[in-house]
UniProtKB/TrEMBL annotation:
Keywords tagged on the record: Signal
Gene3D superfamilies per record: Glycosidases, Golgi alpha-mannosidase II, Immunoglobulins
Pfam families: Alpha-amylase (PF00128), Alpha-amylase_C (PF02806), X25_BaPul_like (PF22058)
Protein name: Alpha-amylase/pullulanase
Molecular functions per Gene Ontology: catalytic activity; cation binding
Amino acid sequence: MFTVPRLNSPRRTGDRTKPARATLAAAGALVLLAASALPAQAALPTPAALPTQAALPTQAQTQAAVTSNTPGPPSDADKGAHSLRTPVADENFYFVMADRFSNGDTGNDQGGLGPDPMVSGFDPTRKGFYNGGDLNGLLDKIDYIQGLGTTAIWLTPSFKNKAVQTEDNSAGYHGYWVTDFTQIDPHLGTNAELKALIDEAHARGMKVYFDIITNHTADVIGYKEGARTGYVSKDKEPYRTASGAAFDDRDFAGRADFPKLDAGTSFPYTPVLDAAEQNLKVPAWLNDPTLYHNRGDTTFAGENSLYGDFFGLDDLFTEHPTVVAGMTDIYEAWIRDFGVDGFRIDTMKHVNDEFWQQFGPDVLAYAREHGKDEFFMFGEVFDTSKSNTSQFTTRNRMQAVLDFPFQDAARNFASKSEDAKQLETFFVADDWYTDADSNVYQLPTFLGNHDMGRIGSFIGTDNPGADDAERVARDELAHELMYFSRGNPVVYYGDEQGFTGNGGDQDARQTLFASKVSDYLDDDLLGTDATHATDNFNTGHPLYAKIRELAQLTKEHPALRDGAHQHRYASDGPGIYAFSRTDAKDQREYVVALNNTEEPQTAAVPTYIPKRNYSLLYGDAVQNSKTSADGTLTVTVPPLSAVVYQSSGRIPREKTAPAVALQPPVSGAATATSAGDNGRLQVTADVGGNSFYEVTFEARTPGGTWERVGTDDTAPYRVFHDVSGLNPGTEVEYRAVVLNNAGRTSVSASRSAVVPDPVLTIQQPAEGSTVQANVEVVATADPEKASHVVRFERSIADGPWTAIGTEDDSSPAYTVADDLAARNLADGTKIRYRARLEGSTVVSNVRTVVVGAAPQPDSVTVAGSLNSEMGCPDDWQPACAAAFMAFDPADRLWKLTADLPAGQYEFKAAINGSWDENYGQDGAPNGSNIVLNHDGGPVTFRYGHTTHVITAG
């Protein structure tokens, strides 16, 4: 769907309601562990009295206090446990956009709406309109799909869409503008044709997954105050009940006593419907405008990423129990009536936690009640931080998320030839996903998609001077990494034919049938002389053949799909990354080594087995090799390729279980390299041996029973236990049980940790910025709870701290406006801001600003991939005068309006004509590129030098 990714910077070349669920941590361990401390149907608990601490955060506040204890009494868990493998740990997905695959029935091209493209949405010459593919085309070409080794077809949203949104000058071919959630879009076929496709797939042993949406519908609702208006925060305009009383929706999320709302009084904008569209949506409850957030367009950051409209798309009030129940009913019907095997869930991170904590378990239980024991759901969380993406599988009780961190790591390794140790760091962090009912082995992995672009496009961008042979080799290397490492590989349709494209979104949505789109016809495909002017269903294409080979090999050797993934070796700099895969039952070790350089590389790779023969299964290398006395296997890997070796027998059984000891548990916020999670405790076990082990972590509160947190089968052995549902200061006791490959166990001594305080962080204003008149001060809390109440304080010229305004309990962003106008402060006066968590001693960091007008730079450039369209000689040109903004002294903003063709662009603000000072997403210095999905026409850029934020709209 449409979202703002975190990219590199800069690139230069009748509705039921249900009772609320306890908003606890992940399913399994903590829910049971905390049963004695929390009421069964309560919302998140109010923090208990906290231990005495310093007024300001210290290092001690980010680390749990620890004591060492003797082992607890024996339990069934002392027998040890195997690392979890769900039925969906060996799936091969084929991700396909029906409109862009094959046109099996030209009679449905116009969707029954007539020949006018601005009504029907059908225009095969334009990349933003329906091109003609359909479900019958998928059925006709199912041999082609299955021939890749596909076990599951994943369809982009196929529900009936608003055919054209005139504001966007494009059509709903992609499926994300839904008006009717109960029928297939007429451009794609009928419900009966979907059933025929699913039945045929099932007859062949394949599954069919639906891409579903819970966050929004088509843009039908307008506002009395104006169309597609800017976002209004909850702090400026809170929600109000039908009688006009202000309230925070987070206090009632998912609860049956959610306040009654009124379209005229409850929202910052007044929702209105065109007379012709008042009953457009199906089911009928979707036509109630009070079931939407009605706060204006999102900028994809902070609070508005949860509450704002995506480019006008109507953002559902997912905190409302009617929406939770309604969405659950919709998708249960597709399971019951059509036998859908699973869901990929769009825009998951833009929906509140409480929704997922109810929707996920309910839908999964329903599927299993209807014979779908392998039903599987995974969400789109467009982020590369595992501590964040994993929250949806632990805290929010969902089964899996799309592995965006893997996509980033795979591109860096295979396409950019970056340091092999980055892959080591990447895979070691997999423990963020381990809990009692899920782990990293369930995650779907991918190399590119319909939003961000194709792996073939990335390879071309990263290697502009490479010939076709090198680009194909890098593409194959990326697929080898995806197929041989943990997770479920996803092939994006057309990648098997070497599709490339000029970017993401519409530029990554080419047809496999002959295209008439001019922007597609000039694409340079990998591994072929073919173009998009002809059909591209070539089963002899080198990439099709490679993917088929990888799928077949992993089918013959299942450990390469779901065996334990153990890091083994990483070069300093570009070179070899090696790992082993081992099935816990078979105990045969497979060694995988990949080389991301253009020269052969040799490495000594540690294994579990000394003096053992290993035979080559895959790649161009010596056929047989033997490990040394210390278990080292010497491998030589050709340029830009991979090799796989298999041991001649199982790992020797250990006669005794090794000793195991716990390290002091620490806060998850103190352990991550980029972003952490203060709502989790990292618990690590040291194991005194060198063989295949599985370590189970257990936890309990005082007086409770031992409950499983999760099992790890890869060193270093650890879990990140979600304790966000417990009060700060609560004691949690941990122990570890190690299971060796002979079925013997040993138990560690236990350690006790204290749940840390929340961490408050001032987000605005920026440190060192200059301020005038009204200053907006914003803070966030980690972990976030609806019960938090925050008060703000200021200090003028190092004077005493004084309170600002009233406290704020409106999560997830706590805000106060500080009016400095009446104080007549001299320019240069220093002001400090901080926040306090009411009822505790928790105090935020301090932000210091200076009173006065922000000194303006000599120039500001909109520098990015759009510069050539602006008249610059090339893209990413900070000194190009055609991309200079003009300063408007009235509102002290820099502005530039440019007429751009449709497409996806990336840009930043460059200061004084160079990259020495530049600002990206959210005003961050040297920050991530900002993404603009543009439908063509004028666009205005605005930049404020006080906040350093640059926007386009």
